[in-house]
């Protein structure tokens, strides 16, 4: 609670937005003595940050001490804010390294890392930068993947850092062609920045014969959570920030397998404090205690974003994972990439990049199972395409939700 009190006091004294909010709600910093008291403070939303950024910057910082950063806009609401130019990156890296220690990563020695994320090589499809082998996520063609595998074997990394979607495509190629990748030093595949789905995890671990570790975080730096060596549950770093799981009625989610939005208060950004920040990310609660012995609150998984829901004909919301990933499709073996697009209520466009030619039976299976999962409250259109475009940061979105679902 010390970290919360310190942040609240700083925000009240030096951040005009919070000075005004506290006064409006008749809250004094010394009245916030518990996490229950913290709930007196209204939520901070992405729109509030967009509309009030000037007043959210602490007056205790000079212009030359801060840097401007932006989020990727994967929620449909791109956002910019400020953080400490000198310390933000170092603090973030320290926490990431602490998390990766569970995988055998040692920040005090030289680790060779292959990186398949949003990094763009200065020219071509790869480059070596220090002890890192950078592979482009934007050019994952069959021909290039053969080159990537040869590069990986020659480089022999200790770790592969990747977007799940990128390393999943490479894993597909390895498994489909029955290749045996020889990476004698590889300890783990480290995945983040996108949701990790069970089908992806299984493929990656089969292809590379090591454990996949996934973590959750965001640019705003309010919540950081990751798996340990004992389980696939996400351990929330209490030193990094305070995290609440809130249901649609504004109540704490306490039941096992209950779903709520991650609302987080970050401890490391005093330039623009994020207090009770609504992330728009949905997570599945668990009350389990991990056998690893770390005393962290656990969540089973990040379910996705609010934006990753389909709106049915009767205006109900259904998670994309329920329509796609909770089912078994025989046709999945013939699909290289898939993306859902919703432009109209009750209608879903399914874009598919084929690995093998889909016949009428395959197409009907995909359509029928999606409709059945939604209790026939959606219409499904399937479109075969040559490619699915990634975001500017190299991420791959399973759902493009163009409706306002707030």
Description:
The structure is a single chain. The chain is of the alpha/beta class and 406 residues long. It has 3 domains: 2-86 and 217-305, Rossmann fold; 92-215, 3-Layer(aba) Sandwich (Rossmann fold); 309-401, 2-Layer Sandwich (GMP Synthetase, Chain A, domain 3). 26% of the residues lie in helices and 26% in strands. It has helices spanning 2-14, 16-24, 35-38, 46-56, 88-100, 142-155, 164-176, 198-208, 320-323, 360-373, and strands at residues 66-70, 80-84, 113-116, 126-129, 132-135, 159-162, 188-191, 211-216, 225-226, 234-236, 241-246, 259-266, 277-285, 298-305, 309-311, 317-319, 335-344, 347-354, 379-384, 399-401. The strands form 4 sheets. Strands 4-5-3-6-7-8-9-10-14-13-12-11 form a 12-stranded mixed sheet. The chain has a 4-stranded mixed sheet with strand order 19-18-17-20, covered by helices on one side. A two-stranded antiparallel sheet has the order 1-2. Strand 15 (309-311) and strand 16 form a beta hairpin. The longest helix has 14 residues, at 142-155. The model has no long low-confidence stretch (mean pLDDT 89).
